[in-house]
Amino acid sequence: MPIATPEVYAQMLDAAKERSFAYPAINVSSSQTLNAALKGFADAGSDGIIQVSTGGAEYLSGPSVKDMVTGSVAFAAYAAEVAKNYPVNIALHTDHCPQDKLDGFVRPLLDISAERVARGEAPLFQSHMWDGSAVPLEENLQIAQELLAKCAAAHIVLEIEVGVVGGEEDGVANEINDQLYTTPEDAIATVKALGAGENGRYMTALTFGNVHGVYKPGNVKLRPEILKTAQEAAASELGLGADARPFDLVFHGGSGSTAQEISDAVDFGVVKMNVDTDTQYAFSRPVAAHMFTHYDGVLKIDGEVGNKKQYDPRAWGKAAEAGMAARIVEACENLRSAGTSLGA
């Protein structure tokens, strides 16, 4: 199917919220990881979100180029072509963009989408993330207001972060402390600044102990009930019922989360969960197995010629893609999106 239109993306998010499931949002950095993500979603019968970070976008542009916009445009063009062959809807998203990279990443991409929409075409990406976790909340929301207006004009969903995700991703590191927990006051400030959809649709990454990186179950102290409290605070501010879920929530830093923590977060309104660390390992592990198992074919040992079929990048690449696709199926099952595709 073609990349999701803004209308289809809205239907995807609405369906997730109404039916209490969430979409895995898979970070990719190459055509191989993109193909693995597409296969994983198709195998699961789930629509999904595929995204690039600032570092992923640089990598996609080429090692001597390192241009985030070039890499993002190339990624979106390739994804638009290959996604046509899969029976699920895929939305394209740009991940964490801190303040110092807005002018070299999100804002130029918004301008490209605005030009496309003016010509009657779809935007290049369906959503963009502004990561204002490193600046004071007031400044975070002021920038979010500006970006939300531009996103709305280009038929794009904005994602924001209110609170701090611990750990490190793409060079952005935060300490693990009490700042990892969003307060009800933060939630109220967000709806006061951005509204409840009338100014443009946005997703909110509230933090409830989330940490980027690699952690064993139990090492990260998640408190999903914070999401429930935030929804209630926002609902009260908007004059809605106590059981309303005004925020479309995003779950960051989920590696090592228990099945119950994921389930609770989805129950409280999470519609998108970022999955990166786990899929990186799922992609790389079969490559390591291939190299160790076939070392005498991959390497030209003792003057021999090796085995071309074993060092052909497609040999280990197929195994890597299969491993990553299987992990994405697992993510879809954990988030209850398996079998829910609007295109199925």
UniProtKB/TrEMBL annotation:
InterPro entries recorded: Aldolase_TIM, FBA_II, Fruct_bisP_bact
Binding site for Zn(2+) 2: 131, 161
Required cofactor names: Zn(2+)
Cofactor remark: Binds 2 Zn(2+) ions per subunit. One is catalytic and the other provides a structural contribution.
Gene Ontology annotations of biological process type: glycolytic process
Record keywords: Glycolysis, Lyase, Metal-binding, Zinc
Identification of the protein by name: Fructose-bisphosphate aldolase
Name of the encoding gene: fbaA
